[in-house]
């Protein structure tokens, strides 16, 4: 497969992943009769069978035993599973409580929070435009807090939990399918215990609300796994800068759903806050593209210089090999008349 075809395939997978994540509010809204906690528990329980089927199909079991002998990585997986559980619960609650726009804002803010984590935790150095983007994003939060009389806590918790999840995942160093499987294995038993508990109390939508809702709840595992698989297929085919731009597709879809489908209020102060966040993301994206362009140019120049150096060395060696050594005075040529060597 050539590079152009690989990129097209990667783009298709990337748009599919972020498109599905952006449309998830429609799925959670169909499950509105169930409590957010029950939806979350079903998402965890049904994700494990899906993960096991994927692992069996790919024959990807070699990572399991080494992982079980590494307590530190197991602790990080427990932390990542806990953090993403909080993120999932709040997102489901926000959708079914009429806060889709605020949830979308959280995922717009997330790249800015990830950059801040890079500075505070990983001691990374920011470029001036990155500082400007983070500053504009912080200003957006202040504008919304002043306008509403409260901090947009749903947006901030979603942004910080997802950024924390990404930070922890960097230390685990498992690929998408293995990481997803390990996390769902940790989530499975507590979630199953909760479902059995509410079932025993007669509060289970899965048991009480008929076949349709039960199938939708069981489908939570597929709704969780399929976008993740598509994302993994995209990540190995696309540059990070391209993937970073596609990621805005999900909160954009969420924003449009909140505005057009769920008809949430969008007063001027909320428009102002969103506009500032979008400005910050434009600055951030432009800086990333410019930096990537400079990197490619520097790499090409280095390749050219290396090629020229190699050519010069080859020419020097060739000249040295073809040069006829000078014979000492008085020494006769001993080659036969036919020109062959002795």
Keywords:
single chain; mainly alpha; 0% strand; disordered C terminus
What does this structure look like?
There is one protein chain. The protein has 342 residues and is mostly helical. It is 80% helix and 0% strand. It is built from 14 helices and no strands. The protein has helices spanning 3-30, 36-58, 64-68, 71-96, 100-120, 128-148, 153-172, 176-200, 205-208, 211-218, 220-235, 240-246, 249-261, 268-322. Helix 1 (3-30) packs antiparallel against helix 11. The two termini are 53 Å apart. Mean pLDDT is 84; it is low at 333-342.
H/E element sequence: HHHHHHHHHHHHHH
Percentage of residues in strands: under 5%
Task: Supply the number of helical segments.
Answer: 14
DSSP helix fraction: over 70%
Secondary structure: number of strands: 0
Largest sheet: none
Any idea what the shape is?
A: globular
N→C terminal distance? 53 Å
User: Mind telling me the C-alpha Rg?
Assistant: 29 Å
Q: Which spans of ≥5 residues are poorly predicted at pLDDT below 50?
A: 333-342
**Averaged pLDDT:** 84
Output the structural class: mainly alpha
Topology:
Blueprint: H1 3-30, H2 36-58, H3 64-68, H4 71-96, H5 100-120, H6 128-148, H7 153-172, H8 176-200, H9 205-208, H10 211-218, H11 220-235, H12 240-246, H13 249-261, H14 268-322
Helix pairs in contact: 1-11, 1-13, 2-4, 2-8, 2-11, 4-7, 4-8, 5-6, 5-7, 5-13, 5-14, 6-14
Summarize the structure.
The protein is an all-alpha fold and 342 residues long. It contains 14 helices and no strands.
